[in-house]
């Protein structure tokens, strides 16, 4: 069973002020990683909750850390399978349980392995399940996974073009995988997700 963390705006805790919320699945899903933790963080997800009134969902499914070898080893030799299915199925359960979450306005965001997982989730989920996807510095081909270089993003962009899939891309020259100067990135992400949530 997956661990799930749901972050909602403070005014959503009172039924009299509840309103339909767009949902962002913030995922990593990489081997031996853990996104759901008993600690507070301040990042783009918390900003979207507090300032833009999103519900943010984080899920640790099979392959994640902190639950023993059997749980963690479920993705050994099978990256991009069960850990992605766990994200989709757990999110479906969250949407079913929380009627205030707008299932027609679900977006997904991941960085690094999470960028790969976000794209893979869109591929494996029912059509139109995810309205928009943000994939930052993704792994696109595990043959080149000694590190995550720009080559991965270029491969993903080429694949999207070959499938005639509309996308926007932003390149950050002289920045490494972690993109230390994130103001522009977060502004672009916020505008993109807000536009997605409106339509």
Draw up the topology in text:
Elements (H helix, E strand, L loop, with lengths): L2 E5 L13 E7 L16 H9 L2 E6 L8 H4 L9 H16 L3 E11 L1 H12 L7 E5 L13 H13 L20 H16 L1
Parallel strand pairs: 2-3, 2-4, 4-5
Antiparallel strand pairs: 1-3
Helix pairs in contact: 3-4
Based on helices, strands and strand pairing, what is the structural class? alpha/beta
The largest β sheet comes out as:
5 strands, mixed
CATH class: Alpha Beta
Discrete helix count = 6
- What's the helical proportion of residues? 25-40%
Q: What is the strand tally?
A: 5
Which regions contain 5 or more consecutive residues with pLDDT less than 50? none
Task: Give Rg in angstroms.
Answer: 16 Å
The main sheet orders its strands as 1-3-2-4-5
* DSSP strand content: 15-25%
**What is the domain total for the residues?**
1
Keywords: Aminopeptidase, Glycoprotein, Hydrolase, Protease, Serine protease
Organism: Trichostrongylus colubriformis
Domain Peptidase S9 prolyl oligopeptidase catalytic: 47-146
InterPro entries: AB_hydrolase_fold (IPR029058), Peptidase_S9_cat (IPR001375), Serine_Prot_S9B/DPPIV (IPR050278)
Question: Your description of this structure?
Answer:
There is one protein chain. The protein has 199 residues and is an alpha/beta fold. The protein has a single domain, classed as Alpha/Beta hydrolase fold, catalytic domain (Rossmann fold), CATH 3.40.50. The chain is built from six helices and five strands; from the N terminus they run ββαβααβαβαα. Strands 1-3-2-4-5 form a five-stranded mixed beta sheet, sandwiched between helices. The longest helix has 16 residues, at 82-97. The radius of gyration is 16 Å and the shape is globular. The mean pLDDT is 92.
């Amino acid at each position: 069973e997956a661990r799930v963390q749901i972050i909602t705006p403070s005014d959503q805790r009172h039924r009299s002020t509840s309103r339909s919320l767009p949902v962002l699945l913030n995922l990593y899903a990489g081997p031996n990683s853990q996104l759901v933790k008993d600690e507070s963080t301040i990042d783009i997800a918390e900003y979207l909750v507090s300032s833009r009134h999103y519900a943010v969902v984080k899920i640790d499914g099979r392959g994640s850390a902190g639950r023993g070898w059997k749980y963690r080893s479920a993705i050994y030799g099978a990256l991009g399978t069960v850990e992605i299915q766990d994200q989709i199925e757990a999110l479906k359960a969250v949407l079913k349980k929380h009627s205030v979450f707008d299932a027609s306005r679900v977006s997904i965001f991941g960085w690094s392995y999470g960028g790969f997982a976000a794209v893979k989730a869109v591929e494996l989920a029912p059509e139109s399940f995810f309205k928009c996807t943000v994939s930052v510095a993704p792994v696109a081909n595990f043959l080149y996974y000694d590190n995550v270089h720009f080559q991965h993003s270029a491969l993903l962009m080429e694949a999207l073009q070959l499938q005639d899939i509309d996308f926007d891309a932003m390149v950050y020259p002289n920045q490494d995988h972690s993109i230390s100067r994130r103001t522009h990135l977060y502004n672009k992400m916020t505008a993109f997700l807000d536009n997605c949530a409106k339509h």
